[in-house]
Specification:
single chain; about 325 residues; alpha+beta; Phosphorylase Kinase, domain 1; Aminoglycoside 3'-phosphotransferase, Chain: A, domain 2; 2 domains; six-stranded antiparallel beta sheet; three-stranded antiparallel beta sheet; 11 strands
Length: about 325
């Protein structure tokens, strides 16, 4: 294991904290993640070791977007500038380049760990307001440099756009994906419907502070240009996996109705876009299936993958909607 201590000491000098303040946090896939308190506020330090998967311009683009959102009142953890006034600090150590970033810590609990009974219509609407604010700000955002522009959704691998796969067992599923893409290719990409989105807006990527009725969105690492309805579809998609229950239709309808009630307070949308939801849900369903099917254990009905994968292949191949809802009627009920 690498000796991270000298890098942490350098980061402390750059961001004004003492290494003894740091507490390791979970969640770092590639990076080392730590929490610390200073001046009655909490922060998160992320140290990214040398890695070919990490691009400095990409990180700069993400942090500039987050800074813009935070400065304009979006409920996200804003990035903190170093003593050198940088959003990212480069630390050279033993011939390797480490990247240090500090952001504000979010209050509350990770939303996927909150029991469904603690949610209510008001909290769904607050979530909608939070997302609507971000999408509305996206319509006004222009990166400071062309090099800091994020890619479009189908230019990089993500949940909507899995990497190509020639597995013979996927022939029908890939064909179904092609049919969805043919439809999406005909959709307009106007400023009010298409822009910079979160791109991975599931229930593991926001905190909820129930007593204070606040929701904080984080982890913008997958932000891309796409249709705004993609983020809404991801939320609806995930709640039906995270919260298992006997009547998914009732849960989905109530969730989406109240999410849109909040969303439209900040960002206008239309019945046309909400009626496109089945296509985005199906694209996401197929994309995630292609990402996780090799790791699926048929005896697993507890994990996220286990719950999602149950009869999933058959449902996709037989054109069964991800969820049966009258999306137009839900929109008209806002």
């Amino acid at each position: 294991m690498e000796n991270i201590k000298p890098i942490l000491e350098s980061a402390g000098a750059l961001y004004g904290f003492n290494q003894t303040q740091l507490k390791p946090l979970p969640g770092g896939h590639i990076s080392h993640v730590y929490g610390f308190d200073q001046d009655s506020r909490s922060y998160v330090l992320r140290i990214t070791p040398p890695n070919d998967e990490i691009s400095l311009p990409e990180m700069q683009a993400i942090l500039e977007w987050m800074q813009y959102l935070a400065q304009h009142g979006a409920s996200i953890p804003g990035p903190i500038r170093s003593v050198n006034n940088n959003l990212i600090e480069i630390i050279e150590h033993h011939g390797g380049t480490y990247l240090a970033v500090v952001i504000e810590a979010a209050n509350g609990s990770l939303s996927e760990e909150v029991h469904i009974k603690q949610w209510n219509e008001e909290l769904y609407q607050i979530l909608g307001v939070t997302i609507g604010k971000i999408h509305n700000l996206a319509t006004q955002y222009t990166p400071s440099s062309p090099t800091l522009k994020r890619p479009v959704w189908d230019a990089i691998p993500n949940n909507f756009n899995p990497e190509s796969n020639n597995d013979p067992s996927l022939v029908t599923i890939i064909s179904k994906r092609g049919e969805v893409l043919d439809h999406l290719d005909r959709l307009p990409k106007g400023k009010d419907s298409y822009g910079l989105i979160h791109g991975d807006l599931h229930f593991g990527n926001f905190f909820i502070d129930i007593p204070n009725k606040e929701i904080t969105i984080f982890d913008f690492d997958d932000c891309v240009y796409g249709w705004f309805v993609m983020d809404i579809a991801t939320l609806l998609f995930d709640i039906l996996v995270v919260y298992q229950g006997p009547d998914k239709g009732e849960l989905a309808s109530n969730f989406l109705l109240n999410l849109l009630k909040g969303y439209t307070r900040e960002k206008l949308t239309s019945i046309f876009w909400i009626s496109q939801m089945p296509y985005f849900l199906k694209l996401l369903e197929i994309g995630i299936y292609m990402l996780v099917y090799k790791d699926y254990d048929a005896s697993d009905n507890v994990s996220w993958i286990g719950k999602f994968m149950h009869e999933r292949k058959e449902r996709i191949e037989n054109d069964i909607p991800y969820i049966e809802l009258d999306f137009g009627e839900i929109f008209r009920s806002i």
